[in-house]
Please model this.
Amino acid sequence: MKKIIIFFTFYLFFAFSSLSDENNIKILYKVNENVITNIDIINEVKYLKTLNKNFQNIENNQAIKFAENSLVREIIKKDEIEKFYEVNYNTDSINPFINQIFVNLGFNDQIEFESYISKIGITIKDIKKKLIIEKTWNQLIYEKYKNKIKIDNEKISKELDEVKKKNTFQKSFNLSEIVFAEKSKEKFKKKYEEILKSIKEIGFPNAATIHSVSDTSKTGGKIGWVKKNQLSKVIYEQIKNLKNNEFTKPINTAGGSIILLVNESKDVLTQEINKEEEISKMIKMEKDRQLNEFSVIYYKKIESKSYVQKF
Model:
């Protein structure tokens, strides 16, 4: 672990030395009433590279650009949630999420994790604030759109019964996604070309980290295993004939355009499916999908009204 810390600190010093001159702090953005400096950006790069394995493989200029966009999004979300809530950035309610982070990164406890991040200039307080912003944002989206979530439980149950009656195998896909939203055809075409170029040069997970506006961008776009009956007919038709590591063209959804990658596929015997568990999973997945779409839509709405100036 010490070798990793030394290498990572050494790498950041040389890779971003042009940004990290603390004696020459520069304002690079103004977002509403907030400013983003060169130091803020280098700290964001450290944060992203520490907590996201996919981000570690991204080139320096792309990492800086992503960090800039990440901070702008975070500030816009922070300003929005503070209109509705008195946000407590010191709450202990976020601790289980902190615990999950250090466990996923292979640390034994929080003390070991804090020791590691302190050597590269990150604090638990920094991470806490980011997680609280995201958690509160998700709460805001849920409260705003919960009455617009439409799930037909009876239809889901009937479809599952039909699948089980056939006593056959059901296709299951391990998927990843890139979600992007552009209003004009010209911007859409340009963005799509950028995404294709990134996928070719640095791979789908890294492209998802850079370009996707979905929350899954934090895990390289990974959705995980999804059964055929959990997919819409439109989505299934697009992926059913794809081989491993092949991806779709953009598919239009309410929250933007989605590119799906088939990481792997397999057949699952329908007799092995537990109906109650499967229905619960299908309902949760559909609810999460709709909330994610609402999140993208709402963010785009407030982004268009926000003041963002780059210096």
Summary: Strands lie at 27-31, 34-37, 169-180, 222-227, 246-247, 251-253, 256-269, 308-310. The longest helix spans residues 275-305. The longest strand covers residues 256-269. The domain at 2-146 is CATH 1.10.4030 (Triger factor/SurA peptide-binding fold).
